[in-house]
């Protein structure tokens, strides 16, 4: 899946991201991978705009094509190779067109990407986007340009991202970069570098600007938001994630706060109490388990056991109350037995997840698992286990929606329903999608909706009279 950016820039002066008459060249950008990449593409569009490169959603009008890439699984990279092949064809028929690869795959493959004939002119890693304008100059003179240096400091704190959402309701705010966890299967610490937290003042300022521009929801982003930590001049000397979230929620009570991703090892009671205390902090925690077997979790270097994970689930249920919990699961990790797999299924049932992202293990070169462990679960076993996991989650998700029948939820409207112009869609605090008849409501409204039925993907309801 990829998203093209639909940006709107919201400076008080009000300027549009679509290329204007003064922009000499136009950028088209395609984004793959996680929310961090979506957020980074917004930073890239902003840097380019500042340097007189306009933005276009129409690839045929582009002078520069960038692809922001993901390396998390092999199939993510396969998709990018397919797109690069397509861009090569466009390049052949349009002399002067510059094609660049940015993001995690650029970082992972570095110079190798420049070796293929007429494939890309530019290779830029996630910490080098400020260099884009000068690298573009270089590429414009026919040289190949590359910068894949990772940084210990870069957080792009001072750059106002050009917003990608269509509805002006909800936005991502990146609060940290990188990851130090080194889960044995994961490429992210290699593609994104060391963990660093963004200055809280710049985070709060960005949320403030979004608030002024009518946004109603932000999602604070990081690979492991609960290890956020920044020096401040207070008696404590530092601000942790719970403190940052508390400040954001208190400063902007009319906005909803979401955050992703939480690492099970670092989700403290203090954070859970902060979530419980503020109505505007959404009652949804994405808490990836990866596996239900303590033996596999150890091989994955996740830093918790099955029991410790389930204890955190109980803590969420006890402290936060009506809180949705979602997860990521990997099937068929190195040496996973039928018994380990059953443990994953039973953990899913115990946790009673509201939704889940589920994957087959994909060995990534350079990771600890690739170097020290055997990718020995046959493909068809991985697939069978994955389909059992997906099928169980289908049942759990249906159960979770069934429990919502007849209840009333506050829904933040994000836009018109895809199926019908007379219906709106939005989300509950628990991050469940709700569709209901518009009745004069519009994007950005908070509406109390009573749930009457559900489909596999959505809750359906009607707006309640005040
Ligand atoms: N930082 C987040 C997730 C980052 S990647 C966290 O720690 O939870 C998103 C998900 O991709 C991971 O949670 C994991 O389930 C999956 N993933 C990562 N590496 C993978 C691999 N090599 N094979 C299959 N799935 C993988
Ligand atoms: Fe990857 Fe683990 Fe870091 Fe998540 S916490 S990004 S899975 S290394
Ligand atoms: Fe993919 Fe990089 Fe995100 S590998 S999941 S785009 S951090």
Summarize the structure.
This protein is of the alpha/beta class and 466 residues long.
Counted beta strands: 22
Terminus-to-terminus distance: 40 Å
Bound molecules: S-adenosyl-L-homocysteine, iron/sulfur cluster, FE3-S4 cluster
Main β sheet profile: 7 strands, mixed
Give the CATH class of the domain at 18-147: Alpha Beta
- In DSSP terms (H or I, runs of 4 or more residues), the helix count works out at 14
- What gross morphology would you assign? globular
What is the CATH architecture descriptor of the domain at 18-147? Answer: 3-Layer(aba) Sandwich
What is the third-level CATH name, the topology of the domain at 18-147? Rossmann fold
Radius of gyration over C-alpha positions, nearest whole angstrom: 23 Å
Report helical residue fraction: 25-40%
What topology emerges from the helices and strands here?
Blueprint: E1 3-4, E2 25-31, H1 35-50, E3 53-55, E4 64-69, H2 74-92, E5 98-103, H3 104-109, H4 112-115, E6 122-124, H5 132-140, E7 145-147, E8 170-174, E9 176-177, H6 188-192, E10 196-197, H7 200-212, E11 217-221, E12 229-231, E13 238-240, H8 241-251, E14 256-260, H9 269-277, E15 284-286, H10 294-299, H11 306-320, E16 324-331, H12 338-351, E17 355-360, H13 368-372, H14 379-402, E18 408-416, E19 423-427, E20 433-437, E21 446-454, E22 459-463
Parallel strand pairs: 2-3, 2-4, 4-5, 5-6, 6-7, 8-11, 11-14, 15-16, 16-17, 20-22
Antiparallel strand pairs: 1-2, 9-10, 12-13, 18-19, 18-21, 19-20, 21-22
The chain binds S-adenosyl-L-homocysteine, iron/sulfur cluster and FE3-S4 cluster.
S-adenosyl-L-homocysteine binds at residues 72-73, 185-186, 188, 223-224, 261, 263, 288, 290, 328, 330, 359, 361-362, 364.
């Amino acid at each position: 899946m990829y998203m093209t950016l639909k940006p709107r820039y919201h400076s008080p002066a009000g300027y549009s991201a679509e290329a204007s008459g003064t922009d000499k060249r136009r950028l088209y950008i395609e984004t793959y991978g996680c929310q961090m990449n979506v957020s980074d593409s917004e930073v890239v569009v902003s840097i380019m705009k500042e340097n007189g490169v306009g933005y276009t959603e129409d690839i045929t009008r582009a002078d520069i094509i960038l692809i922001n890439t993901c390396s998390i699984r092999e199939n993510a990279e396969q998709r990018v190779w397919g797109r690069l092949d397509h861009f090569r064809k466009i390049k052949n028929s349009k002399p002067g067109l510059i094609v660049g690869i940015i993001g995690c795959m650029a970082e992972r493959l570095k110079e190798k990407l420049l070796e293929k004939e007429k494939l890309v002119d530019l290779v830029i890693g996630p910490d080098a986007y400020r260099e884009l304008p000068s690298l573009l100059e270089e590429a414009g003179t026919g040289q190949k340009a590359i910068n894949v240096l990772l940084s210990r400091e870069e957080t792009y704190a001072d750059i106002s991202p050009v917003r990608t959402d269509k509805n002006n309701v909800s936005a991502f705010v990146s609060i940290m970069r990188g990851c130090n966890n080194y889960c044995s299967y994961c490429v992210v610490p290699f593609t994104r570098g060391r963990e660093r937290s963004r200055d809280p003042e710049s985070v709060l300022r960005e949320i403030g600007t979004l608030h002024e521009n009518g946004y109603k929801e932000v999602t604070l982003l990081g690979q492991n938001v609960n290890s956020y930590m920044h020096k401040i001049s207070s008696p404590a000397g530092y601000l942790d994630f719970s403190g940052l979230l508390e400040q954001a929620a208190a400063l902007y009570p009319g906005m909803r706060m979401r955050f992703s991703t939480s690492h099970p090892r670092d989700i403290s009671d203090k954070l859970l109490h902060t979530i419980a205390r503020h109505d505007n902090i959404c009652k949804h925690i994405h808490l990836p388990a990866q596996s239900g077997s303590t033996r596999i979790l150890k091989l994955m270097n996740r830093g918790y056991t099955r029991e410790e994970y389930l204890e955190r689930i109980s803590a969420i249920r006890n402290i936060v109350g009506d809180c949705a919990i979602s997860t990521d699961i990997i099937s068929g990790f190195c040496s996973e037995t039928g018994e380990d797999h059953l443990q994953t299924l039973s953990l899913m049932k115990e946790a009673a997840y509201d939704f889940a992202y589920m994957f087959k293990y994909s060995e990534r070169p350079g990771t600890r698992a690739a170097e020290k462990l055997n990718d020995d679960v046959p493909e068809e076993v991985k697939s069978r286990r994955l389909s059992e996991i997906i099928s169980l989650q289908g049942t759990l998700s249906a159960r979770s929606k069934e429990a919502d029948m007849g209840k009333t939820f506050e829904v933040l409207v994000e836009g018109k329903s895809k199926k019908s112009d007379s219906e709106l869609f939005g989300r509950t605090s628990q991050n469940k999608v709700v569709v209901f008849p518009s009745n004069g409501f519009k994007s950005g409204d908070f509406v109390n909706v009573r749930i009457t039925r559900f489909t596999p993907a959505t809750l359906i309801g009607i707006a309640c009279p005040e």
